[in-house]
């Protein structure tokens, strides 16, 4: 298995480290030539969604990535990656998103909560995180809520979390993503 990790900005190195821990090969996508390599899935990391969205367009990556996801490539978006998959950017996942829902950097926090199909005690680190107001697609599924807000969801072969599982030692969220392929 070989996973592409969008490496334009954000916490991409931590996702690569998590994949390495799981014995999965990964490579960084910084330009179209990188994207054109064989891959079994894509991770879109946290960071700043507006910046990442602009870079995707400027580098000619927006449409090829969007089309690959529409064609069924498994994708995992964390934090800003969640926003990028929403109708605000790539529009491949039918979710209504609240950007910066937990405020600025000082609004960051850590908690443990259940994630449907994964486990009851999943560590969750939120950093200026969004949340999902609503999963709009009939084939969408809410996987986790914290304080009444949706923080993880799935639609087809797309997985999103408002939190950063790559910043914790627990590998179960990444394992779940890898099993979607």
Task: Tell me the number of strands.
Answer: 11
Mean pLDDT, nearest integer?
95
Q: What order do the helices and strands follow?
A: EHEHEHHEHEEEEEEEH
User: Distance between termini?
Assistant: 9 Å
* Major sheet strand order: 2-1-3-4-11-10-9
| Structural class by SSE content | alpha/beta
Low-confidence stretches: none
Number of helices: 6
The major pleated sheet works out as: 7 strands, mixed
- Proportion of residues in helical segments: 25-40%
Shape: globular
Residue share in β-strands: 25-35%
Using only C-alpha atoms, the radius of gyration works out to: 15 Å
Overview of this protein structure:
With 181 residues, the chain is of the alpha/beta class. The chain is 26% helix and 33% strand. The protein has six helices and eleven strands. Strands 2-1-3-4-11-10-9 form a seven-stranded mixed β-sheet. A two-stranded antiparallel ribbon has the order 5-8. The protein has a two-stranded antiparallel sheet with strand order 6-7.
Keywords:
single chain, 181 residues, alpha/beta, two-stranded antiparallel sheet, 6 helices
Summarize it.
With 181 residues, the chain is α/β, with parallel strands linked by helices. Helices cover 26% and strands 33% of the residues. The protein has a 7-stranded mixed β-sheet. It has a two-stranded antiparallel ribbon with strand order 5-8.
Summarize the topology.
Layout: E1 2-6, H1 12-21, E2 25-29, H2 32-35, E3 41-44, H3 49-58, H4 62-70, E4 75-78, H5 80-85, E5 95-98, E6 109-115, E7 119-126, E8 131-135, E9 140-146, E10 149-155, E11 158-161, H6 172-179
Parallel strand pairs: 1-2, 1-3, 3-4, 4-11
Antiparallel strand pairs: 5-8, 6-7, 9-10, 10-11
